[in-house]
Amino acid sequence: MSPDLFSHLLTWLDQVFVKSFDGWAVVGYVGQVFFFMRFGVQWLASERAGRSLIPLSFWYLSIAGSLLLLAYGIYRREPVIILGQGPNVIIYIRNLMLIAKENKKREL
Q1: Helix, strand, coil percentages in the chain from 3-state DSSP, rounded to 5
Q2: Assuming Cys at both sites, which of 27, 33, 52, 92 could form a disulfide with 62, CB separation 3.0 to 4.6 Å?
Q3: Alpha-carbon separation of residue 31 from 36, 52, 106 (angstroms)
Q4: How crowded is the C-beta side of 96, counted as CA atoms within 13 Å?
Q5: For residue 77, what is the DSSP state?
Q6: Which residue spans within 47-99 are E strands per DSSP?
Q7: 15/21 Cα distance (integer angstroms)
Q8: Burial of 68 by CB count in 10 Å (0-12 exposed, 13-18 middle, 19+ buried)?
């Protein structure tokens, strides 16, 4: 890697990860952590059961992650994030509604 290219890379990394860091970046990072955690929860539940499962906590982590990333995208005015996360919240809530409906049927 040439010294000039390396210098440009360091400048870019500084601008993206250091100079743009603020409270909203923390919101975005926490949202990403929730999204990562949901896959870990799903994987562990599936491994324990010996089959593919999607536990209830997966949907709650999905909603939390989506809402935080949506708030971040709205604040930063990033249409890709807004369009990507907005509909997800509706889908995750609908899944919880379907689960609740199924649980009610089982109770009867």
Answers
A1: 85, 0, 15
A2: 92
A3: 9, 24, 34
A4: 14
A5: T
A6: none
A7: 9
A8: buried
